[in-house]
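General statements about sequence and structure are easier to judge against a single worked case. For one protein, we set the task of working out the structure tokens from the amino acid sequence alone. The sequence in question and its structure tokens are set out directly beneath this paragraph.
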Amino acid sequence: MAWMRKLLRVNLTTGNIVEEPLNMEWAQKYLGQRGLASKYLTEEIDPKVDPLSPDNKLIFCTGPLTGTSASTGGRYSVITKGALTGAIACSNSGGYFGPELKFAGYDMIIFEGKAEKPVYLTVIDDKVTLQDAGDLWGKSVWDTEAAIKSKHQDSMMHIASIGIAGENQVLYSCIVNDLHRAAGRSGVGAVMGSKNLKAVAVRGTGGVKVDDFMEFMKTTEAGKKVLADNAVTGEGLPTYGTQVLMNVINEAGALPTRNSRDVQFEGAHDISAEAMAEPSGKDGKPNLLANQGCFACTIACGRISKINEEHFTVVNKPEYWHASGGLEYEAAWALGAATGINDLDALTYANFICNEQGLDPISFGATLGAAMELWDLGILNSEITGGLELKFGSAEALTAAVEATGKAEGFGAELGMGSARLTAKYGKPELSQTVKGQEFPAYDPRGIQGMGLTYATSNRGACHLRSYTVSSEILGIPEKTDPLVTEGKAGLVKAFQDATAAVDSAGLCVFTTFAWTLEDIAPQVNAACEGEWTVDTMLEAGERIWNLERQFNNQAGFTAADDKLPERLMKDAAKTGPAEGLVSGLDVMLPEYYELRGWTADGVPTNETMARLRL
């Protein structure tokens, strides 16, 4: 139960669509979503494949709790070999698309090959069809969604699509659903664009059955009470969203600023959750209008914002006067602190463009920050950038750059390569703040030591959501650890990585873990799914998934040498704040981490580890 036990396999080259039974033996080992789709990917493609070739595959996958009444059971993931990194990519999104796919009767869609011309897929219960997307190619995500709903006369369809960025294979382009929810990282949108696949539109009229209905209702209701009673999930996130962290992380001296030259941003308050709630403009309305939740979510951390109509970005653009997805912490950091910009409306506008054209705001903002440092050093100039003056702190540069990158025009096409390729092109690769080619997010490893090990060992390139040690090191959840020391962080990171892999694979949002442990989650999975799901079996599944991903990357050519941080974080000490004088202690933590993982000194899982995890 909980699984629909069916998948769709869509060969875009031939146009053939077949329905297959889900491999339930694999489901029992990998649970669903991130884990199960990664198993399919590793079995079906050569890890050395070019991510943008027809031989790569693109998998949309749900978890067993997706589409159920479990709080936050609205997640789905897109799994592929990442265009930005060349590593295994799993990008997670919320909203309503994932549940709708389950309601149509499917756990997963596997896309193979490449269509000769642009197409989109419609899944209307068991009627599945490839449609011509010639009239959609060149449209934004917003216009694509409106056009498909209009064509099919169905406002209840849920659509995942790419914008112009994905079409042009901007290497960190996203797949966006429900207008501002995104499978956002590692370039999954570029892979979709390389296949001439514009969108997936789903409408389902079924439901999801669970194994033990009464027990499931009991465990999910208990879980919802835990979330409601918790200060973070019951109060902080609903009120302020993830932006509650802006001032907190800045005060901790761990807010990467101006391409990580600094660890604190003097303009942090101006782009914070508190600033979003302050009245602005002639009408006195704040930037933040409301919060919003995904399917079945009782947290509702999403932001709905509106730009001041007098702001230079939209004064002559009434099409942007409407409300849309507002700034989350990572986006506000990347578009703001990473570039030294404290103009809240400019950040909101840039975020709207990222939503509209399908750009990862983390990689975009961090890449722009690197470009601004190249400008500051005199390596870039207006002749190279086509007139863009990429000065730190320039809101005008931000808004012009995001428009150009969203459409892959002019210097925007170079920004669309990501910071690793951009800085290498101009002879300064050390300025790229990346791991495995992916820009790291809004936590400086000099001020939060566990995040340095998290970034370095993340299987999809630098990522905070694979092991959010900030929860422990800054927020004291589930227990407080000192962010400035390396002791104990190897074990902390491994524990977070394994648990998070299990949560991702269940179909739940990782934000629940601010309140829940696996003691809260395992009973929900056990009541929903056949088989026995305990804390131990879920942790084992998470560890198995982590090692499966690692194995794929090793076969793709990654080695222990790729488990590293940018030179700046290892050599240039923090200048201010609690971490003043510190660099990352990665070199101390990494050997202990390998040992705890059961890997060789070269970062390869041992035969004993592989056998224990039944890999």
About this structure: The CA atoms of residues 232 and 307 lie 27 Å apart.
